[in-house]
Amino acid sequence: MDLEFLKDEFRVFISTEEKSDAGDVEPWPDPVDTKVLLTELMTQLKRYIVVYDDGAVIIALWVMFAWVHDIAVHSPLVVFNSAEGDSGKTTACDVLKFLTPRAHAGDELTGPSIYRFVDCIRPTLIIDDADMLFKRKPDLARLRLRPTRRVYSAII
Fold first, then answer.
1. CA distance 17 to 87
2. Domains of the chain by residue range
3. Strand 18-19 relative to strand 103-106, pairing
4. Which candidate, 55, 59, 64, places its Cα nearest to that of 34?
5. What pLDDT does residue 119 have?
């Protein structure tokens, strides 16, 4: 492909991204009680989304993993499924954007742009309606299965 075309596509991709207002976060100087943090995180999740206790634990652990991802080799995916529309999947995505480091939401990603974006920013990707995106763009479905890339991932 033409290099200039890819650069233009990447600029458009970055300019349309929704970014979290959190910015760079300073590490907390004191030790943190993980149980208290997990409990408070679950409380905040339940404040904005309707989820069972087991689901809140899973989401909270995934959020905590996103913050220590730099020492990991693989990323777990969190997937919200529902047989019905208007069940809160998009709201859950919006909540995750405020709880994860360098969160970016995307809906029309391409393989080349996502590789460059991940190498540059190392984001937590929040992809709403990813199942439809993978059907429209099969190159992303192959990219998703490649284990050598270290990507913060939320496929929603």
1. 24
2. 3-18+33-155
3. antiparallel
4. 64
5. 76
